[in-house]
From TrEMBL:
Domain of life, per lineage: Eukaryota
Transcription regulation found in the keyword field: no
Amino-acid positions noted as binding heme in the UniProt annotation, renumbered to this chain: 464
The protein, known as: Probable cytochrome P450 12a5, mitochondrial
Cofactor list: heme
A Pfam family hit: p450
InterPro entries xrefs: CYP11_CYP27_families, Cyt_P450, Cyt_P450_CS, Cyt_P450_E_grp-I, Cyt_P450_sf
The keyword Transferase is assigned to this record: no
Family membership: Belongs to the cytochrome P450 family.
Annotated gene: LOC106056986
SUPFAM superfamilies reported for this sequence: Cytochrome P450
GO molecular function, one term: monooxygenase activity
Organism whose genome encodes this protein: Biomphalaria glabrata (Bloodfluke planorb)
Sorted UniProt keywords: Heme, Iron, Metal-binding, Monooxygenase, Oxidoreductase
């Protein structure tokens, strides 16, 4: 052990020789400083975790799940919680490949601060296999390095600016009006209400991606668009299963998981390509007739006009956005409304904010949205209580790091298990308290690592590219539902268990009760 003056001395020396030293090449904290514990960092093989056969490649992954344990890929969060209870904040195990799972916000911060200009998130291995077999180019979520950056930059310009999503508010207000009208006028089984949320998310993102309404709320919607929803969900489920090592052979032959994935992914692509083709035709027609309005938002037009992008790349990008932007938002909109239904007092507080700013009929505008502090706090608290992804925040380390006192080498896959500190690092963690986010910023940011806990959309240059749209759609649903309807839960749904597929969802479809406010 080092005394504190020795540690300060060491820090100075290490900071100076940090870059070139071969002996002291381990980056040890978010800002390159070093602590006494970290100087004595232990090797990778000292990281605790399930031992013996569990550490074997391939077989080790299978042993994590049923029938060998009580866990499945959907309850991976419960399994990781149990491992962290047993082994501490750094755990090593086989999940598809060897991974290090971390849950200390300081370590999470260290990973993000050192992720570099082109952060590496492993692409889904089953999608890699599918693309290779079908001669399809890798998409934004799979590319790495400069190729990823070259594609991400033009998309950032269109989707990630502060006002990117608000340009679509007018059209998305209309989608939400239709959604809320149906919620308020029909009786649903839990399954049909769940389906309606999928239609809502799909319809909302389609006005951005394809510049058109899909008609999913109509009596006889296009069957392809309806089938897309189930196919996207199945594809994502298979991605998760394969990614966590429950399917191993898909790389070498078309096993059952792969075939299920292939069928659903074929459908996802076919439907998305159909929409893109139609959107392109409309665009060409409008340009011919002079109807085209350059000032109205049109993502497809804007991307096709970018000389650096080929038509094929634009099409693949649109497919990825449609695929990534439906299931995720559909599921989280339900989770948020669930939290509001479960916490009636908070629902009333939020309704008051909404009615004060918009009244019972007003559309959601960018100005009103900027004033809705309770809405933002409530969604953030919902993200804390039930994070939308359990292990979506993953990186392959570009440099050697010290995490929790262990040396983790460059190239290692690291899962950031933010779900755990979201419970362990807050007062009254089991209470739904939007108010905790209303306190002054400095109060919630006493510890800089605290800002590394609630990260529903990841962090850094590779964070979720659809986040502004996802959040806007969830806000719109909450605002418009609360303007018109009271949300309750039927008694059977009062204590739902949430699982990950890979996005958070209730284990059984939620039994909402929507009642018109008179
Ligand atoms: C509640 C809804 C959503 C959640 C919780 C979510 C979550 C995430 C997360 C955690 C990541 C990884 C970020 C990282 O590695 O730092 C991600 C990436 C991504 N998301 Fe989302 N997402 C949502 C909605 C959307 C929407 C609406 C779209 C498209 C319109 C979208 C498109 C993407 C894409 C393309 C990536 C990969 C980005 C890249 O690798 O550069 N997501 N998302």
């Amino acid at each position: 052990m080092f005394r504190s003056q020795n540690v300060t001395f060491l820090r100075n020396i290490l900071d100076k020789c940090f870059v070139n030293s071969t002996v002291l090449r381990w980056r040890t904290s978010s800002v390159g400083h070093i602590s006494s514990d970290e100087v004595e960092a232990k090797p990778l093989n000292a990281i605790p975790g399930p031992g013996g056969l569990y550490q074997w490649p391939l077989i080790g992954s299978l042993l994590n799940f049923k029938p060998f344990t009580k866990f499945t890929t959907e309850t991976i969060h419960e399994y990781l919680d149990q491992l962290h209870d047993k082994y501490g904040p750094v755990v090593k195990l086989q999940l598809g490949s060897q991974v290090v799972v971390i849950s200390d916000p300081k370590d999470i911060e260290t990973v993000y601060r050192n992720e570099g200009r082109y952060p590496q998130r492993p692409g889904p291995s089953i999608l890699d296999a599918y693309n290779k077999r079908n001669n399809i180019q890798d998409n934004i979520g799979q590319l790495q390095g400069e190729a990823w950056h070259a594609l991400r930059t033009p998309v950032n310009k269109r989707l990630m600016k502060a006002d990117s999503a608000t340009h679509y508010l007018e059209q998305q207000n209309k989608v939400t009006d239709d959604f809320v009208h149906i919620l308020g006028t029909q009786n649903f089984t839990p399954e049909t209400s769940q389906d309606l949320f999928f239609r809502y998310a799909s319809e909302s993102i389609a006005v951005v991606i394809f510049n058109k309404r899909l008609g999913l709320f109509e009596a006889n919607p296009d069957q392809g668009s309806v089938d897309f929803l189930k196919a996207a969900e199945t594809s994502l489920h298979m991605i998760q299963k394969a990614g966590l090592g429950k399917s191993l052979a898909h790389k070498w032959y078309r096993n059952k998981t792969y075939r299920t994935f292939e069928n659903s992914q074929n459908l996802v692509r076919r439907v998305a390509i159909g929409h893109i083709e139609q959107a392109r035709k409309v665009l060409e027609q409008e340009m011919k007739t002079g109807e085209f309005n350059e000032d109205s938002p049109n993502l497809l037009y804007s991307l096709l006009s970018d000389k650096k992008l080929t038509n094929e790349t634009v099409a693949d990008l649109m497919i990825s956005l449609y695929f990534a932007g439906t299931d995720s938002t559909a599921k989280y909109t339900q989770v948020f409304l669930y939290n509001l239904a479960k916490h009636q007092e908070k629902q009333q507080n939020l309704r008051k904010e909404i009615l004060d700013l918009l009244g019972p009929e007003g559309p959601l505008t960018a100005t009103a949205l900027s004033k809705m502090v309770y809405l933002k706090a409530a969604l953030k608290e919902s993200f804390r209580m039930i994070p939308p992804v359990a292990i979506g925040n993953t990186r392959i380390l570009p440099v050697d790091l010290v995490l929790g006192g262990y040396k983790v080498p460059a190239g290692m896959k690291v899962f950031m298990f933010n779900k755990r500190p979201a419970r362990t690092h807050f007062e009254n963690p089991n209470q739904f308290l939007p108010e905790r986010w209303l306190r002054s910023e400095d109060n919630t940011k006493k510890d800089s690592a605290h800002s590394m806990i609630v990260l529903p959309f990841g962090h850094g240059p590779r964070n979720c590219i659809g986040r502004r749209f996802a959040v806007q759609e969830i806000y719109l649903a909450a605002v418009k539902v609360l303007q018109k309807l009271q949300i309750d839960l039927q008694p059977e749904s009062a204590f739902e268990r949430f699982i990950y597929l890979p996005f958070a969802q209730a284990e059984k479809p939620i039994r909402f009760k929507f009642t018109k406010i008179v």
